[in-house]
Fold each of these.
Amino acid sequence: MTTKTDVLIIGGGAIGLSAAYYLLKSGRGVTVLDKAEIGEGSSAGNAGHIVPSHIVPLAAPGVIPTAIKWMLDPPRSPFGIKISLSPAYLGWLMRFAAACNAQNVERGIPAFKGIGLLSAANFAQMITEENFDCAYAEGGLLFLYQTEKEFAGGRHEAELLHKHDMPAEIFGRDAIREREPAALETVIGGVDFSGDSSLHPGIFLRLLKERIGEMGADLREHTPVTRIIAENGKITHVVTSAGEFEPRLVVLAAGAWSPQVARGLSISIPIQPARGYSLTMPATKTMPRGALLLGERKIAVTPMGSKLRFTGRLEIGEMSTEPNMRWIANIEKAVREYIRVDESDVVIEETWAGLRPTTPDGMPIIGFSPRHENLILATGHAMLGLSLGPGTGQVVAELANGQNPACDLQAFRAGRF
Ligand SMILES: Cc1cc2nc3c(=O)[nH]c(=O)nc-3n(C[C@H](O)[C@H](O)[C@H](O)COP(=O)(O)OP(=O)(O)OC[C@H]3O[C@@H](n4cnc5c(N)ncnc54)[C@H](O)[C@@H]3O)c2cc1C
């Protein structure tokens, strides 16, 4: 059976659902296909941080030496890397190393600032307008530090943000416990990225999925795309396990699976998964006041209403979404080195692993395919796919409707690889 559709979105994660929302608002017809349950991919169990402060791409000077240093301390390392001789994987690693330079950062900063601020404003608007009850908190994101070296790095980041007219406040040893009473004496200072916010991503995505359904989207779960057929620079058919679709426009938002879904289309989508883990428990007696990032260990701590979530690790090249219990335990132990968490309070209800879709220059891919007039790519958001979701959704709808996007997408253009 062949179904004709207006916009066909492949992937129902933070990016696909956000695109669906803004496309529907603009009057387009939308079908969302997902190989599993919509909203349950790599977006649901993440840290829930909305971080317009995050303006520096992952590929930046100093990243490679730091990663090597971390790997020499395996039990505490926030970073891991798969060993594989696959040419695509080795090519990706070489491209990533080559992109760790000042020019990449210069290109990335205005682009991330533009889409990050747009997205943060869209979250606030959408959550208010749609009355989403998803533990949304605009209290900032507080980085906590235990060593002078990392604290100096945090202060440097705060200065960088000030240079770009973005807020960041520094707290010394005496002031930090007033800002975050749960911080232990081991914490010597902190930086509050006060324009950031947080929410419960699983609840947000469930509400967004329900809202999109009410707005008229055709939501198809457990419907994997097996093939995309193109003719004369145009996608003509999208083949799934439950029949074929004949779309006017396709949005590819399949996260870490995007290269697999697009194979056969002769476009370069160099994305590798960067796996990470989370554990979630009921609210503890000494809940932190707001969202935290533990500087040396790169672990996120997020109060989410009646829940508390810890998130960490970045393992390049790992595609399985099976949580590794050794790392889950390490994350939980590391959090207790920074903040008060009574051991008896730790009742782990949920463990999770997800994949950050990561490009070699650390920037997302947003724009029309260089080879197909009716294919928009919206993928590769790495560690920012939730945060940049509603911003990406808006610009995808604008591109689909032939309008100028609200922010500059040149650094994210699809044909750059
Ligand atoms: C530990 C961890 C913590 C994180 N914390 C944050 C955070 O605090 N803030 C933030 O902004 N980001 C965070 N991220 C990153 C964020 O989770 C990702 O960037 C985001 O999930 C990517 O969204 P997406 O919609 O592109 O992909 P996904 O959410 O992975 O969605 C892609 C969808 O495509 C579907 N799909 C795949 N193949 C097919 C197919 N063949 N046919 C149909 N459908 C298919 C999948 O089932 C999936 O549902 C974190 C990630 C991890 C791992």
Note: The longest helix spans residues 102-129.
Amino acid sequence: MLDTHSHIYLPKFDEDRDAVNQRALEAGVKGIFMPAIDFDSIPQMEKLHHPEINFYKMAGVHPCEVKEEIPGDLEDELLEFCGKDDFYGVGETGLDYYWSTELVEQQKESFRIHCKVAKQVQKPIIIHNRESTEDMLEMIDQEQDGSLTGIWHCFNGSLEEGRRALDLGLHLGIGGVATFKNAGVDKTVAQLPVEKMVLETDAPYLSPTPKRGKRNEPAFMKFTSQKLADIFGMSLEEIDATTTETAERLFKIPTS
Ligand SMILES: [Zn+2]
């Protein structure tokens, strides 16, 4: 399995990172994609090594980290990192109107710059979206010239929004929220094509049931993977194979 969204580099894992990695491996996680919060995330990512787990770096500025003034060199800085062979995606970026709508225009501008860079380097964007779905999809629509790929991370949209995202060329990141009772995400997911889905944890956030409320870690992806297997009436092996293949294709990494 590939965890396509994990902030495993954060200090929250400093104390027991080896054990976390070991559990990931035992759960079948062979690769972990690391979206950045901001540029300070990158040196933290570069410290991670494991003989049996591949760590994949990405660069970006999370919408909640966007400041009143967008740095004039944001595009150049993103290009510098994301253009490198050992960077696999652009993000995380996107829009978040839940915490604050004060800097909506700045968030949009930053998101636009990330999209531009993603098209230039031909790597997927990782989209964070919270209470901003309409604007997010509209912006992807504007930016889509046939070459933009990406993941709607932590997908929790409606069926119609999910279909629109797929029509716009996005993939859906399925995380812990799909296991939550009452969230209804599972019912929506059931009506969308599994071939367009990738697994993710968003560790240390959003732990799946039955670990809800605890610090999330890549090993817990097995609960989300089991949920997807139940939803689609597939075996765990089939879900692992399908989602892994999709992620490998999207991130252009060698097939396992
Ligand atoms: Zn994230």
Note: The domain at 2-251 is CATH 3.20.20.140 (TIM Barrel).
